[in-house]
Task: structure prediction
Amino acid sequence: MTDNVKIAPSILSADFSRIGEEVKAIDDAGCDYIHIDVMDGHFVPNLTFGPPVIKSFRRWTDKPFDVHLMIDPAQPFLEEYADAGADIITVHAEADKHLDRSLQVIKGLGKKAGVSLNPHTPESVLAYVMDKVDLILVMSVNPGFGGQSFIESQLDKISRIRAMIGDRPIELEVDGGVNSATAKAVVDAGADVLVAGSAVFKGDDYVATIQAIRDAYSA
Ligand code: DX5
Ligand code: ZN
Result:
């Protein structure tokens, strides 16, 4: 069961002065996805990178780009992120007045469509889009920064969403405060993709930091 759990290091905690090499290093260390946090300084109180920077990562890895859009609005930019090489495009339910339409646009671009929920957002917003999503991203911190503490109340939400998913082919990703101390509870609750930023990039040996997370949930 835990053999299927994927690790998606968030490059938000990488060394930005040599970001391409960092992307290659997590690829070499055996990550499953490259989690790319796009922030607009409006939906979240921080700024990161946009499509041209994401496009430049492709020469360093063939792994799927898991693009987490923390931007409002997202819909006018979806095609640009698809063209930049995103494989999964995740929008926030709170940033999108027309979530169903955005999901259709993403799928129409030939990409996997994700929906993210902030910690205060109930899982009920997913009820009528379950047939259009490929991935659900539960934020277990308030988005904007790496290195925050896991919000325990999200474990219950993860379990409830796992039940909603049933046997649909939808990935359940959890993002924020995931590390070797919290990973087991997150996987036990039903997550199958773990985003980890500071927990992966805290050391120099990314094989070891990724393995520590895998060991924690496999225990
Ligand atoms: C926060 C981002 C996360 C962040 C996680 O808004 O979405 O992906 O990088 O960082 P850690 O794993 O350090 O909590
Ligand atoms: Zn993220």
In short: Strands lie at 6-9, 34-39, 65-70, 88-92, 112-117, 135-139, 171-175, 193-196. The first strand starts at residue 6 and ends at 9. Helices lie at 19-28, 51-57, 78-83, 99-108, 154-165, 183-189, 198-201, 206-218. The chain has eight helices and eight strands.
